[in-house]
Specification:
By secondary structure, the chain is of the alpha+beta class. The chain has 21 helices and 9 strands. Residues 1-12 and 319-327 have low confidence and may be disordered. Heme binds at residue 487.
Length: 543
């Protein structure tokens, strides 16, 4: 009797559809995976934060004054993103670390030490140089032969090459090269005369770059570049290319290990082929035709063929056999030959042309200094038969002061970098610098420190009287570096720049124009200290 209703009731019970059950299961599973992924990401992010904090605690754990990193770029964000010139970027760090003699900074996650005290700078660059021989730049002779030049090399190979190349930059060698430089200076004057006659505004940096390109082309490669008359010459074009690749520079000077792994060359393939080809063609031509010329190529040929450079004619070593110890006797290959020519070119034309240009700018906005310099040039030239000779340039003491002040205010290389090659304890402290640590000397910052140079933005050649120089610590003026790694081409660079400036000032008058700013802005994309937008002045013929 009761079974039927019960059966009816049971038959009406709702059973969830099969697809609904599956969907619920899927949602539950999806939610579980998503939660796991998010949890994992949060964990990894937290772990990364802890790791980064641990890295950034490097200097604090050692009790070293340090600057708090701003981001994953460490303290070098503005420099690495090309918002500030390297020299000005380090100047900011230099000022923030005042009054400490040194301080810790970070290039991304890598710790580096910025040193401020002149005595400590002296220890790093000179007294304890054996601990800081390397610059830390990429050298890859197999994949990038042009990287194996004197500026980049370190250790025994650098010392050997430095010993061999030093005799190529004596005063006697500079005297022999001077006529080649003078010919380029006269060519520049001839090209500028029409512009001066019309009192035109000129971008003097480009003109000076053409002049120094022709000088280096002539003195280093034995080639007439004709950049003064033809601004689109191959050498001038390649000169612009060398300093126009921030990405390549990053992997060759900062992310060096990555640069090695990826075989990133300093130059573009086109520039690399150009420089290697020019050197090989020149050397082959000279060897086949017995051509001798008073230039850098000729000196390197002596080094390659004899193992040494012939002494100067007036040298006490003339006629003596030159010998070298076994540790510095190594094959001077064609690739090594080309690399030294290349660095002579890049180090010689850009640094000298910017120095000349900054100097002309300061003379244009300081006409009293310009006139005093012109009077000295006229007086000394008159004593030398009306010619700008090598000896005349050396006699111009005020010119030397003007150039020194230019290099003080606008040092071509705004910082000096070294890598600790052996563990080093800072004198008078317990701080031990580990092997591989990068050390920076902020040259631009030191040169603009009012403690050493009162009113540093003021252009004042009187800072470099003999008395003025004697009153300062020797290691607060570092436009060419110091110690065993001081710029080997310093003498050449000074002669070239002084000749160019003296030639221009003796024939023309420079003044500020509507395009001449009172204060120049430094180019954050340039590897050397250089101004944004060039340097514009008005040029006129002397009356």
């Amino acid at each position: 009797m009761h079974s039927a209703p019960l059966l009816r009731h049971t038959s009406k019970r709702r059973v969830p559809p099969r697809h609904f059950a599956i969907r619920s299961s899927t949602m539950s599973l999806t939610g579980s995976i998503l939660g796991d992924v998010i949890s994992t990401l949060v964990f990894v992010a937290g772990l990364l934060v802890l790791i980064v904090k641990w890295f950034y605690g490097y200097w604090k754990r050692r009790g070293v004054p340090s600057l708090e990193p701003e981001s994953v770029f460490g303290n070098f964000k503005d420099i690495l993103l090309h918002r500030k010139n390297f020299g000005e970027g380090l100047q900011e760090l230099y000022l923030r670390l005042d009054p400490h003699p040194y301080g810790g900074v970070f290039i991304s996650l890598r710790p580096a030490l910025l040193i401020r005290d002149p005595e400590l700078i002296k220890s790093v660059l000179l007294k304890d140089f054996s601990h800081f021989q390397h610059r830390g730049f990429k050298v890859d002779e197999k994949h990038d032969p042009l990287s194996a030049h004197l500026f980049n090399l370190g250790g025994p190979r650098w010392r050997a090459l430095r010993t061999k190349l030093t005799p190529t930059f004596t005063s006697g060698k500079m005297r022999l090269m001077f006529p080649l430089m003078d010919a380029c200076a006269r060519e520049m004057l001839d090209a500028l005369r029409p512009l001066a006659g019309r009192r035109e505004d000129v971008e003097i940096k480009e003109w000076n770059a053409r002049f120094t390109t022709d000088v280096i082309g002539s003195c280093a490669f034995g080639i007439q570049c004709n950049s003064i008359r033809n601004p689109d010459s191959e050498f001038r074009k390649m000169g612009r290319e060398v300093f126009n690749s921030p990405i390549r520079a990053l992997f060759n000077f900062v992310l060096v290990r990555t640069g090695y792994l990826l075989h990133i060359k300093l130059l573009s393939p086109e520039s690399d082929r150009f420089f290697m080809g020019v050197v090989r063609e020149t050397v082959d031509y000279r060897k086949k035709n017995g051509v001798t010329r008073n230039d850098f190529i000729n000196l390197l040929l002596q080094l390659q063929e004899k193992g040494h450079v012939d002494p100067d004619h007036d040298s006490p070593d003339k006629g003596k056999k030159v010998s070298h110890s076994a540790d510095i006797d190594f094959p001077f290959t064609d690739d090594l030959f080309a690399a030294q020519c290349f660095v002579f070119f890049i180090a010689g034309f850009e640094t000298s042309s910017t120095t000349m240009s900054f100097c002309i700018h300061e003379l244009a906005v300081n006409p009293d200094i310009q006139e005093r310099l012109r009077e000295e040039i006229d007086s000394v030239v008159a004593k030398h038969g009306g010619k700008l000779t090598y000896e005349a340039i050396q006699e111009m003491s005020y010119l030397d002061m003007v150039v020194s002040e230019t290099l003080r205010k606008y040092p071509p290389v705004g910082n000096l970098g070294r890598v600790c090659t052996e563990p080093y304890t800072i004198p008078g402290t317990n701080l031990r610098i580990e092997k591989g640590t990068k050390v920076f000397v902020p040259v631009y910052g030191i040169h603009h420190d009012p403690k050493y140079y009162p009113d540093p933005e003021n252009f004042d050649p009187e800072r470099f009287t003999e008395e003025g120089k004697a009153s300062r610590h020797h290691f607060v003026y570092l436009p060419f570096g110091e110690g065993p790694r001081i710029c080997i081409g310093m003498r050449f660079g000074l002669v070239q720049a002084k000749l160019g400036i003296a030639s221009l000032v003796s024939k023309f008058v420079f003044s500020a124009s509507s395009q001449t700013p009172a204060k120049l802005k430094m180019d954050p994309n340039s590897a050397v200290t250089s101004s944004i937008g060039g340097i514009h002045v008005r040029i006129a013929t002397r009356t």
